[in-house]
């Protein structure tokens, strides 16, 4: 068990971690969590909780549902944990792709309702970009980062998530991805796994979403972070509202540098990590990147109480 009185990093998962039923025990057992989920429903003007708690997985997987659902569940986990451990003060926060948006609320950069509005609009705009520029994403396993980058240059694809030294996600149109997969396998990649996502996220193919995302970001009231927030793009602290706005705009079409993010935290004396939200993807990646790390996943009411 992590000692919450020590220096601890809190991290938040991205799209793909959603599962029907997530957060339901929090909703039933905690008024704090219930208030968060109800606020999300009110902000969206629809009953997202019906989809999250008892809908079909296919409907939940849709970007316009998955993104606010993961954000809501992660924030509910974080808030209920904070209520129980009132002296808990994270040393730093970081999120993977969508999870970076969850960090905005956790560090009081945005209110919960504004975070949900932004996440929902980001998802809507990304879907428009996907429709205009069809594509996908592939996980390349067991290949050095510089070799993956070389393959992408030759194939016309883009590195989109450097999750660890041996796991890189690439994005691109379907033809470019097919070429990249063939090249990667020929050069020794252990696996190339096509991901079940709706488009080529974190690549230039998201460009149609950029201008409208900029406008929406500028319409919201951003505060400077209460908790240092490590950005996805450069794996460095974002210290004020202006830097955070620029990060969110750049992140749309840039590679998520998760490997470097964890290395930065580790090199600055952080070895204890709590992942708030569904799944254990980030805790698994952190253990691969930093062998000396201690990790904990908070994804339910039971995990907080145990």
Characterise this structure.
It is built from 14 helices and 10 strands. With 306 residues, the chain is an alpha/beta fold. It has 2 domains: 8-131 and 204-305, 3-Layer(aba) Sandwich (Malonyl-Coenzyme A Acyl Carrier Protein, domain 2), CATH 3.40.366.10; 136-194, Malonyl-CoA ACP transacylase, ACP-binding (Alpha-Beta Plaits). The strands form 3 sheets. It has a 4-stranded parallel sheet. The longest helix has 22 residues, at 63-84. The protein is globular, with a radius of gyration of 18 Å.
Give a short synopsis of this structure.
The chain is 50% helix and 15% strand. With 306 residues, it is α/β, with parallel strands linked by helices. The protein has two domains: 226 residues, 3-Layer(aba) Sandwich (Malonyl-Coenzyme A Acyl Carrier Protein, domain 2), CATH 3.40.366; 59 residues, Malonyl-CoA ACP transacylase, ACP-binding (Alpha-Beta Plaits), CATH 3.30.70.250.
């Amino acid at each position: 068990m992590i000692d919450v009185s020590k220096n601890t990093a809190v991290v938040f998962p991205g799209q793909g971690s959603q599962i029907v039923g997530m957060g339901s025990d929090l909703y039933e057992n905690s008024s704090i969590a219930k208030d968060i989920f109800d606020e999300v429903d009110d902000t969206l003007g629809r009953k997202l909780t019906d989809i999250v708690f008892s809908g079909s997985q296919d409907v939940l997987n849709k970007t316009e549902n998955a993104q606010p659902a993961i954000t809501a569940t992660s924030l509910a986990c974080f808030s209920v944990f904070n209520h129980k451990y009132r002296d808990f003060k994270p040393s730093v926060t970081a999120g993977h792709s969508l999870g970076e948006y969850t960090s905005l609320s956790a560090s009081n950069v945005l209110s919960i309702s504004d975070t949900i509005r932004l996440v929902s609009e980001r998802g809507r705009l990304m879907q428009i970009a996907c429709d205009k520029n069809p594509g996908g994403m592939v996980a390349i396993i067991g290949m050095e980062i510089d070799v993956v980058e070389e393959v992408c240059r030759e194939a016309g694809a883009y590195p989109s998530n450097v999750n660890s030294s041996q796991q890189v996600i690439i994005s691109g149109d379907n033809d470019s991805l097919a070429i990249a997969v063939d090249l990667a396998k020929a050069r020794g990649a252990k696996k190339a796994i096509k991901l079940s996502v709706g488009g080529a996220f974190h690549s230039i193919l998201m460009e149609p979403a950029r201008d409208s995302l900029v406008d929406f970001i500028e319409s919201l009231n951003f505060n400077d972070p209460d908790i240092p927030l490590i950005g996805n793009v450069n794996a460095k602290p974002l210290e004020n509202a202006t830097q955070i706005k620029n990060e969110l705009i750049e992140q749309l079409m840039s590679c998520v540098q998760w490997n470097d993010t964890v290395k930065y935290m580790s090199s600055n004396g952080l070895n204890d990590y709590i992942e708030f939200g569904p799944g254990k993807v980030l805790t698994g990646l952190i253990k691969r990147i930093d062998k000396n790390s201690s990790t904990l996943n908070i994804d339910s009411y039971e995990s907080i109480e145990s």
